[in-house]
Each structure stands twice: as C-alpha cells, then as structure tokens.
Design brief:
The structure is a single chain. This protein is an alpha+beta fold. It has 8 helices and 9 strands. Strands 1-2-3-4 form a 4-stranded antiparallel sheet, covered by helices on one side. The protein has a 3-stranded antiparallel sheet with strand order 5-6-7, covered by helices on one side. The longest helix has 51 residues, at 2-52. The radius of gyration is 33 Å and the shape is elongated.
C-alpha cells in the first residue's frame, strides 16, 4: 500500500502540473485578446491622428510595446501599413487588422485524462490557430505532448508492476487452500490499488494449506530486471521502465536548459540592436545642443549689431 501511495503521488503530481499549465495558458489567451483589442484601438487612434495632422509619436510607442507583448505571448508577426497601422498574424492567421481584433479561445480537454482524446488548442471560432512560438506554444507543448507522454510512461510502469506481481500471485494458494487472485488492480498509475485486504487473502504458498512463502519470495525477486522481464514475457519490468522515464526526463530538461541559454543570448543581442537603433545617443544629442546654442548666439549678435 505504501508503494501504491507513492505511485499515486507521482501520477497526481503530473496531473497537477497539467492543470497548472492549462490555467496559465488560459491566462495567456486572455492577455492576448486584451493586447490585440488594445492594438486595434491604437490603430484606429493613429489613423485618425495622422488624418487630422496631429502628432502620434506617443501612440506609436504604445503600439510597438503591444506588438512586442503579442510576440512574447503567441509569436505574432507584425506588418506595418503605409498609414502607420499594424496588422498582426499568428502563423498566417490574422488576429489584428487595422481597427479590428479577432478573439481567440482555448478549446479541448480540461484535464490530463482527456488530453489524449481531445488535445487543448487555441482557436478562432471553429478554426484552429497554429501557434508555434511564444509562451502559448510552450504551454501547448506541455499540455499536448510532454506531460501526457510522461503520464503514459508512468502508467506503463504501474501496469508492468501490476501484471508482473499478478502473474505470480495467481499461481499461489492461500493458507485455506484457495487459489490466488489478482494482487493489484487498476488501469494505470492513478488508480493502482491493492486487492487483498487481510493476510488470509495472500496467496504466497505454492501448495494450499501450507506455509512456505515460495511465491512471496518470487514476488520479491521481481526487483531483478531479469526476473521481472521473464514474468512479463520479455517486456521491460517496472524498475527498468522507471529508470528509463527518469533518464529521459533528465536528458530532456538538460536539453531544454541549453536551448534556453542559447535563445536568451539571441534575444539579448536583438534587444541590444533595437535599443541601439531607437535609443538616445548622448554624444549626438550634446553635439546638436551645442549647434543650436551657437546658432542662437550668432542670431543674437546679428540682432544686437542691427
């Protein structure tokens, strides 16, 4: 029962991570809709200001901030029009055009158990939006692939444990002479359970009515990968499967950390380039100020002379 509790804890932990990622993706979709609506509103204000001949520099700055935010959220790609408005598309699906913004929704499963049959996706009406970058893409990958695959692997380990032990327990007999039944029940890690409730139900003897514990010893020997594989007809035993799960997870995490470090350097270089282009150059501004100051002094002398 202690082992079952540990298996449940692992399964529940994966399900909790899935629920957390789903909640965060809902927040990303909500923020995307808000930013897209704000961008469409700014487009209308910019278009009106340009038409009226008013300065729109502040509006343009706000527009650029929203474009960057949408890029971070869903990987939006922006195109500037001749009227200074921005159209923004996500992998070919336009979500902002001039003063109009489309509303995205999160559809599909709302829990891990249903994710395989109905994977979560971001949609516009009845059309799926193929998000491939931004925070949304990361959460979608976790919800659709990473966590379901991890859960499936843990379920496989639990089922291997169930089948290996049951294959031996059903060959034994109880002290009363009854043939042994299943020791574990369940369809995966989330519902793995111990069937016997009293010691009298344990079929751990090879002959009914005796106490030799030979079947119990064979069950204990399942800790060996060779014995577990033999009990499963050549398939990998629960211990081997568990090691494979943890090794694969560790390798994936190391790979992702390396990818994050590399991508951070790319983003930093891009930010530096943007800041260099749009920032204030103090030397240039000082030169300009001196130029205007000398021009003012020269004009003052001309006026004085006249």
């Amino acid at each position: 029962q202690g082992l079952v509790d540990q298996v449940h804890a692992v399964s529940d932990g994966i399900a909790a991570e899935w629920a957390t990622a789903h909640s965060r993706l809902e927040q990303v979709v909500s923020e995307t809709n808000q930013a897209a609506g704000d961008l469409a509103s700014l487009n209308s204000q910019i278009l009106e200001g340009v038409g009226a001949g008013r300065p729109v520099n502040e509006l343009l700055d706000q527009r650029d901030i929203l474009v960057r935010k949408l890029a971070d959220l869903v990987g939006g790609y922006a195109v500037r029009g001749p009227d200074s408005t921005i159209s923004l598309a996500v992998n070919g699906v336009t979500i902002v055009a001039a003063g109009t913004a489309q509303k995205l929704t999160l559809t599909g499963a709302t829990d891990l158990q249903a994710a395989a049959g109905s994977p979560p996706m971001i949609s516009w009406g009845t059309m799926a939006v193929p998000v491939e970058s931004g925070a949304a893409a990361g959460y979608l990958a976790a919800l659709r692939t990473d966590l379901p695959n991890l859960s499936t692997s843990v379920d496989g380990m639990a089922n291997a444990l169930r089948d290996a032990v049951n294959s031996l327990h059903t060959t034994g007999f109880t002290l009363s002479g009854a043939a042994g039944g299943a020791f574990f029940s369940g369809t995966g890690a989330h519902d793995l359970a111990v069937v016997p409730t009293t010691p009298a139900e344990l079929a751990v003897s090879s002959v009914g009515g005796t106490i030799d514990g030979s079947v119990a010893l064979k069950i204990g020997d399942l800790a060996s990968d060779v014995n577990a594989s033999a009990a499963l007809g050549g398939a990998a035993g629960p211990s081997a499967q568990w090691r494979a799960v943890t090794t694969a997870l560790g390798t994936q995490l190391q790979s992702l950390k390396a990818a994050v470090a590399a991508q951070d350097s790319v983003v930093t270089a891009a930010d530096d380039a943007v800041n260099s282009d749009s920032g204030v150059n103090l030397d240039e501004e000082m030169t300009g100020m001196m130029l205007f100051q000398r021009a003012y002094q020269a004009s003052a002398r001309v006026i004085t002379t006249v």
